[in-house]
Amino acid sequence: MADIKISGVMRAGAYSPNHIGNDAAIFNATVEQLRKRGCEVNLYSEEEFRNGPVAEDIIVNMCRERGSIAKLQELEDAGRLVINGGHAIENCTRERMTRLLLGNGIPYPDSLMVDTDEDVTKALREAGFQSCWIKRGDFHAMHKEDVSYCRHAEEAQEVLKEYFYRGIKRAVINRHLVGDLIKFYGVAGQPFFFWFYPFEAGHSKYGLEAVNGAARHLPFDEAHLREICDRAAKVTGVTIYGGDAIVDADGSVRIIDFNDWPSFAPCRAEAAPWIAKAILAEIKKYRKR
Q1: Model confidence over 9-52: pLDDT tens digits?
Q2: For an engineered disulfide with 33, which of 145, 171, 181, 276 has Cβ 3.0 to 4.6 Å away?
Q3: Which domain-ending residue is among 120, 153, 175?
Q4: 202 and 156, same structural domain?
Q5: Domains of the chain: total
Q6: Do 189 and 254 belong to one domain?
Q7: pTM score
């Protein structure tokens, strides 16, 4: 496979809050697996990628900056192979993701999508929301305040006002789900799938796992979890994915977040070969076009 030349684009540190090392580690582990299989991988930062020419026809990336995503989309539309694709990465921004999951019948919390200058207290009460989560709708979370837990409608209104003052124009409000919080990682088209309880593992980005607290180990159908995650990957177009879900007392499972190329921190060594295998499978299909 010495004829396979890949542009590998790392994620900018601003988009790896509290996980810069973990994000770099899974990317480097994947690159190592690709090189072991004979691929030539040239590494670039997001800034280098955004501001310079791209010679390779295959771009493997963890990009999150707006300019980087726009460039990925241009290259993808021009016929390059991009993993994860720029359009797929944009599909994981909160409002797009919410519309895609709900629109395709994938279990997800009841949600409102609003302008941040709206008065939402009446809408929240009419929808029967008590506690809820407000999340910036326009882009990926960069700061702890981009995902906010609110105990009641009045607090939600205050948080929404803060988003408006920060220049965030759109937000998604999710009904708070009571149950066990689980985190998952997967690779589309491959048998690899991993899930765990982040509260127990001390795995945290912003410390928000404390809202649901310690897991009660509520029973649920793991095959169903995998099935809805695979469906989410298909509708968003993401190959390398991760996210969070809530298990209810009745065993139902709902996705609450879905991400393009997460850290795979607790299962990095196991995941990297499968990610490389998925990339090579996509390259094989690309070359048969």
Answers
A1: 999 866 655 556 888 999 999 999 999 999 999 999 999 999 99
A2: 276
A3: 175
A4: no
A5: 3
A6: yes
A7: 0.91
Instruction: Report the chain's mean pLDDT, rounded to a whole number.
Output: 92
Domain that holds residue 281: 5-84+267-287
**CATH number of the domain residue 125 falls in:** 3.30.1490.20
Residues 163-216: pLDDT tens digits? Answer: 999 999 999 999 999 999 999 999 999 999 999 998 786 655 555 666 778 899
Give the model confidence (pLDDT) of 56-95 as tens digits: 999 999 999 999 999 999 999 999 999 999 999 999 999 9
| Same domain, residue pair 250 and 221 | yes
